[in-house]
Amino acid sequence: MKVATLSVPPGYRPAQGWDESLAWVPRSIYTIPVEATEDQVAVILAASNGYTVRARDAADGRVRWTSAALQPLTPVEAGEGGLGGGDARTEIPGLETVAINGSDHFVAWTHGIRDKDELHEGTEVLRLSVYPADAQGEAVKPLREIDVPLSAAPGAISLHGGRDGELLVGWGAEALYPSSTAAVDMASGKVTVHKAPDRLLPQCTEQGSCSGSRVVDVVGGTPLVTSGGGGFGLPGRWSSNDVRPRGLPETSGMWGSLNGVVHSTTNGRVLAAWHPDPQAEGAAAHPTWSVHDIRTGQLLASMRCDYTVPSSDHGSRDTEAVTSINDRFLFAGPVTFDLERKKGLCTAGDGNRKTVLVASVDNRGTAYGVVEETAETESPTLVQLDLTTPTGTPEPLEPGTKAPVVGDLKGHGVFITRDANEALLISLRRRS
User: Fold this and answer.
1) Which of 52, 167, 360, 393 has the highest CB neighbour count under 10 A?
2) CA 295, CA 233: separation in Å to the nearest integer?
3) Burial 121-150 (b: 16+ CB within 10 A, else e)
4) Which residues, including other chains, have CB under 8 Å from residue 354's CB and lie 6 or more apart?
5) Would the pTM count as exceeding 0.70?
6) pLDDT higher than 90, residue 64
């Protein structure tokens, strides 16, 4: 089968693989309706009676199953719902993955108003439709549908977690971690709203100065909280002050707030940032970045990197932590870690060297990133790195080369581009 012409890095074969074209997806959107497990790629298709989910085998593109049409909801228009949204982008359904009792599942989500008609205002919800990844056949129905009541403008919704059958839904602002959240048990359908995150951590009840705290993940029903007054932890289990990397001050800032803030979480890992000792000089004056086990807080790796520590009382982030398919490598912007070697690599600029933002990493440590100052231009400078070396040995790639969004999925890289007709194109290309 002939595939689309792509300019891919040297580690991939441009003519071997398969494509999925989504002509229905608008040019300007909040989310891309694509998700993957270790051996499948699922997309959302537009149908005459709504939307459907289709899953393909990552290795050969064979269709494994297609869902029945998702139950339609009345769309939330710009200006409705809570704060957030209001730009020219279009809100469309999205996909997430979640592991339930050790088995992979795809979750299709739609935002809208249910039961609205001429006599009823209806109820605004985020609807989660759960499908087993190992389903087969046509018109597959969801195992369950879960409605999460919320109030959010288009685009002002986020979803996190999913590793242990729990999904964290956030809403009310277009941020990685909005202030309003609910934990959803995907096995039972139970929805738990976090009504007062400022009161969840001990230091907040003791100090009374934690305005802006946020729930950023959930583990076994317990929320992971990053405090608006500094510090973070899993209430009743562990606190950031107990897992702080050696040599860092307990407090920071003119108000003496607890040191440490969660940057983001992924696959059971917490990426945290810490302020240095105010008396430190040279490289020691740079922030420290660390990775922790979400269940225990155990420190897995740390390093200094001159990348700005996010505000403890705000949910926006410039980047988000992601892991390679085999969980060995974790990255967020210029911060990367090899968790097997317990080593970090910082690709932030140093006055001469330019900042490289890592976009994807394969299971062997080959990473692809973009020079930050070119990231928003029509011709970004793409860079290839080797995360198993002390410096990453960055090498610029040919102009026009596309970076994979997933580096290694069943021996393929996953590329997302637009074709000549502006259709969204999902392309898998075989590794060399």
Assistant:
1) 167
2) 10
3) eeebbbbbbbbebebeeeebebeeebebeb
4) 371, 372, 373
5) yes
6) yes
